[in-house]
Amino acid sequence: MKRILLIIFFSLPIVGFSQSPQKELEQASHFYKSGNYNGAVELYETAVREGYHGASLFYNLGNAYYRTGKFGRAILWYEKANQLAPADEDIVHNLVISNSKIVDKVDVVPKFFLFNWWEALQNVFHPKGWRIFIFFIYLFLIFSIGIFLTAKKTAQTKYSFFSGVAIFVLFVLSVVLYQTKQHQDEFYQYGIVLDQVVNVKSSPDAKSADAFILHEGIKVKVEDKLEGWNKIRLTDGKIGWIESRTLGII
Asked: Distance between the two ends of the chain, CA-based, in angstroms?
């Protein structure tokens, strides 16, 4: 692992712990540095259960799990950290290393290139980032309209009109991308298999036939839930049901 991020008290929401979490988090960092990875996991997990969230916390928890050899749980927390800080190079680096440890290598069903471009545009920002981007585009749009309405020279009117049209198109595109990204995050869930070996069933019943086998650490799409079971889909199109307890939701 490249580094340990020290989680500072004032960067966390002031809820949960009856006392300041700073001492507990510093102790967790001390445990990690001294090689007591299970102790670090316990303290970081306690912070999460008490309502504390943040990319640094999730990253540290992933590091601790990685050191204990629980790669599935390490990947789960790196994925959670990546959701909050997608541009963090350390998180991405450790996620790539952890994924190299998993057994299952699933092929990806090829998509039409336009779909790939659209998904790439969606993933430029997370929903919060898209909202900020849209806000600034809106300001530029208002500014260009203002220039168009107050311009006294023909050249200024012409340039402000065409720039306004271009900004308006970008504004509409950004709103559509934001809405589709938000919808995707709200209604599409992904999970990480946590058990070393999981028999994926053809239906949500322990007595049903085995569809295929998955191993710890693989990322799956969750499409449905039913009484302790999750319907999952792999990137190669395979579908099946696994027990909810074997899956960590990102």
From this structure: 21
Planar angle of CA 75, 78, 82, nearest 5 degrees: 135
End-of-domain residue from the set 139, 162, 187: 187
pLDDT-based confidence at residue 237 (cuts at 50, 70, 90): confident
The first and second tokens of residue 230, run together, are 């999750």
> Do 75 and 132 fall into the same domain?
no
In three-state secondary structure terms, 231 is: strand
Please indicate, yes or no, if residue 22 is contained in any of the structural domains. Answer: yes
Strand order in the sheet with 247-249: 210-215, 197-201, 239-243, 229-233, 219-226, 189-193, 247-249
- The verdict on 31 and 13 lying in the same domain is yes
What residue numbers bound the domain in which 135 lies?
Answer: 113-187
Residue where a domain stops, chosen among 99, 124, 159: 99
Q: What is the DSSP letter of 206?
A: T
Same domain as 65, residue 23: yes
Q: What are the backbone dihedrals phi and psi of residue 245, each rounded to the nearest 5 degrees, phi first?
A: -65, -20
Residue 108 lies in a domain: no
Q: Are 32 and 64 in contact (CB under 8 A)?
A: yes
Tokens describing residue 201: 């069933």
Res 77 pLDDT > 60: yes
pLDDT tens by residue, 99-142: 998 888 766 556 666 777 887 788 777 788 889 999 999 999 99
What is the phi/psi pair of residue 201, to 5°? -95, 160
